[in-house]
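Input:
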Amino acid sequence: VTGFPVLGCGAVTPAGAGVDALWQACWDGPVARRAVDHFDTAGITDFPVGLVPDVDQLAPRGHARRWFDLALHAARQALAEAAPPDPGTAVVVATTDHAGTRAAGGVAGAGPGDLARTLGLTGPVLVVSNASAAGAAAITVGLDLLAAGAAPQVLVVAVDCVTRPGLYGLVALRALSRTGCRPFARGRDGIHVAEAAAAILLGGPRARPGDVGLLGAWVSNVATQLARPDPAGVADAIRRALDRSGRSAADVGHVNAHAAGTGQGDRAEMTALREVLGDRLVDLPVVSVKGVVGHCQGAAGVVEVIVALRAVREGKAPPLHTTGEIDPLWTEQNFGQRPGPVPLETALSISCGLGGANAAVLVGV
Amino acid sequence: MGVHLEHVAYRSLPAPPVPAGTGLLRRQLVPVRDWVVPALPGLFGGLPGHDWATVGCAAAVGARVPLLCAELIDAAATAGGWRAIDAESFLYYSPHALAGTASVELGLGGPTATFVDVDPVGSALRFAELQLRLGHCRAILLLGLDAEDCAPATTPAAVQLGTALLTGDERWPAVAMPDAPVPVPEFFDRIRALAAA
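Output:
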């Protein structure tokens, strides 16, 4: 038996608080985007974003404590699902734009170290920032800590807010879509960002076959330029994650793709998947959570692994939600509209980020 | 298995003055692109020969650098909206731009992670040690970047950039894990002294 058990999960996303709300949204369809109301958006008011609805115990959007409260809420959900954690539990935080939050005015006692202290965890605290692949990178670091026996348990907490420098910068980069994230669709034209937090508590080696857990993961930066993923780099991350998991491409039954809805990014990812999974790809359900809740930035990787875990646990993958026709490149592809060719026992989750970051996480029994 | 220091290089890079008026708005200065990228060949040029496809990367980025990037981009947005932001500048907004640039320049193929905030140096060393111990790569390129503290929306006089090549090869000096969080420049001072000894 390879891999590590998932002892608890938590999520606070535009779908609401809790993993159940996220999972239900993956079946129901896209969560409505909303206008930013927590900073001046002069000149960019036509780029709505994904915002967490009103949830108790969260500071208002734009408040310097919002980042911390989102993280704490998700972490407490994950811890509540498990027995009290070992005090030496390591905390691996993923965030890609904490600085953008702090640029609006910092607040004492609301950083990653404070998060661990508030939760009563005294193990090492690491803060990973591999751009949009940060969440999956943090999971990889967490699995490394467990594999090396460097921590008894690991709490991975991924969180990002919608920040002013982040939003204006993405508009300047022509990365944002006015019409929302439309993964794999013809004419897709970019992402819509979302605020979110997600957490996973990972334990020691799996006690018995049949437990759903994280089988293995890999993060690297095989790339030829900073702006878009390289198919060879994505394929390398997938292969390495499979190797670490002791699985082969033939074992993969479902793909939770990065699929941010960018022209080049979706194409690079599908090219990589085809290279590794071969002719099987066309029949495997390939879905994207970003079409539902938006691009959760540094939290995206953990949000998507949580959905993949739920899919394996329930033995069914939610359908792809996108808008408009599928790109003619992939009209034959199974985007969750039909069951896959094998029982859904192993799922692959992929994350990519600016700078050339690529990560892959394998989930399964 | 610990981590061992095969090579270290370190530079303090003087920051050019921020151009006044629209010059700033049309092309934001961001630390990694404008100060670090031009300095990388000088640092990498001294690295021993390696098959870089088997080398990973651990970047430790001090908290001041991403905050400075956020302040510069935010100031441009305030002054002129999104059109005042140079798109290429935003490619270097993420702290991961340092590791990304190094990976592209050298063709690094091993595990790669960027660490910020609480203890970036300790986290990067821990990551390096894990990758070497688990046999995920044969060496790790450690990158460190920091800037001195200064007033908000004010560029610092200089940024500090360091590179070190860490291996599991015990022929090289062992690097001790710091007991407590240590600033990036102080850590590179320590390992430069180690290499000199």
